[in-house]
Amino acid sequence: MDWKKILRQAKTGDPVELASAVFDDDTLERLPEDASLLVHGDPTYWISRDGTTAHVQIEWSWRAGFWEHKFNLRVFVEAMVRAIRRLTKEGRPYAADAETEESDPDYFFVRWTIAVDARLPGREIISRAESAFDEVFERAERMLEDSDSVLVLGKDTGEHLERLQEIKAVLEDLGYHVYLVKEQPDRVGESVIQKVLRFATTTARD
To answer: If we measure between CA atoms, which residue out of 110, 111, 133, 125 comes closest to residue 49?
Structure first.
């Protein structure tokens, strides 16, 4: 890596734009902690250093008008965030900062951060970021192919409802899409049992 050029550009305060191909056996230990690297691509990486840890923010974006996947782009982006939560619970080095954004005209963004050892070769850091993206994308696909929805049932008044909401929060934190029947809109003439069966059927199809 051309550290002389990188350090000179870093002094401007702007991210230093690099191609992924320039990352070699050099580590990122020479990257100033107040500087960042910007690697454009699909996805894009924003890289910074804090001590011996390199933080790589992965940013993936796509436009709905050009999205040809069988699942709706908004739905897929939400599934990616749930996938990140699950993978984090499984021990992946992802920070709890996954976020989505929608912008005009129809762009969707997903961002999350992974932590890697800054003492690793730069090419290895890029490789780990690429693997992290592939893993999240593939997990999101599997979650949408299979059922990842949960219908939480139980007495839903007073303190019992509070307990159900606590269970819902825990499950959502694990990356599941959770239905509480109490919180879902009613249909005219529909009984409680019919409403439960409606969402149970929906959950089974998700």
So the answer is: 125
